[in-house]
Amino acid sequence: METNFECPICSEEFNKNLRVPLVLLCGHTVCKKCVNELYNVKKSIICPLDRKTDSRQISQISFSYTILELIDKVTFMSSKIKILSLPPEQRVLAIKSSIQEKIEKISEQASKIQEKVEEYISMKNTVLDKIDSAFRELYLKLDIRQQELKDEVEEQIQDILSKFKNCEKTLNSMREDTENELNNLNNIQSNVNENIFCYNLPEVPDVNAKIKFTENSESLVESIQDFGMIRNIVTVVPFNCEHFTNVTYWMIPPCCNQYYCCNKCHDKKESHTWIYANKMVCAYCEVEQDYRKLPNNCEFCGNYHKGVISRN
């Protein structure tokens, strides 16, 4: 049985190998071999039947699947008709031979598939081995790095602990030095407080912050009397002496030019007779000024000076 599926250029029958039928833009079907020859000459395809140009590349031209299916069907029917036209005995042999050929083809295809499968399995095993080796190497590096980090952290912790211990020693030493200095200051304050002649003055934590009137302060007082004021007198206003309360000033008698809370304090300390004071020092602003009769306001700071109250 003739198929009559031929290429119009080379007159060869179409097949699934070199002469695959290709459909041009004009609609005519030409085998792939002829299309290659036409394209290699002019880099374009001119249909020899109607002279129309197809500028597509060969890979863009589609197959004629209809012709391929018809070829398969005609070939199959031809083989059947050929077998059926044989005598019964030959027909059986032909059928067996056809089946055997199909089995051989299937076996050949299965063998190729098996080879591919084995190749893929081998490739898979190779890849898995490489992955496994890479993971083992990575785990080993991670373990080494983890140990290095542990050692670094441990070293840093030891260094920090050592620094803390050194800081603790330094702080203890500073605390001891501070305690010694405080003890020295307390001793100095105690010695100074014993010489204060103004009674009931509060304790002062820093003996160097203020100037105290003591028995040895005459030279200091004399050196600053010319300026008409006394600064940094340590006291709390009002303060109290042993004879009067509510005292807010010092009196300066001309007999000795010393500073006293009252005449009784003067008489207790001095051997000469009290002469009534003509100067005074405000305990608020510590400015020396003319003595005025109480009660009055300070001429400089304006604070009010009440009259003193006797303790008797």
UniProtKB/TrEMBL annotation:
Coiled coil: 96-123, 150-195
Pfam families in alphabetical order: zf-RING_UBOX
Protein name: RING-type domain-containing protein
Entry annotated with the keyword Zinc-finger: yes
GO molecular function: zinc ion binding
Gene3D superfamilies to which the protein is assigned, alphabetical: Apolipoprotein (1.20.120.20), Zinc/RING finger domain, C3HC4 (zinc finger) (3.30.40.10)
Keywords per UniProt: Coiled coil, Metal-binding, Zinc, Zinc-finger
Limits of the CHY-type domain: 234-303
SUPFAM superfamilies found in the cross-reference section: CHY zinc finger-like, RING/U-box
InterPro entries in the record: E3_ubiquitin-ligase_RING, Znf-RING_euk, Znf_CHY, Znf_CHY_sf, Znf_RING, Znf_RING/FYVE/PHD, Znf_RING_CS
Domain RING-type as annotated: residue spans: 7-51
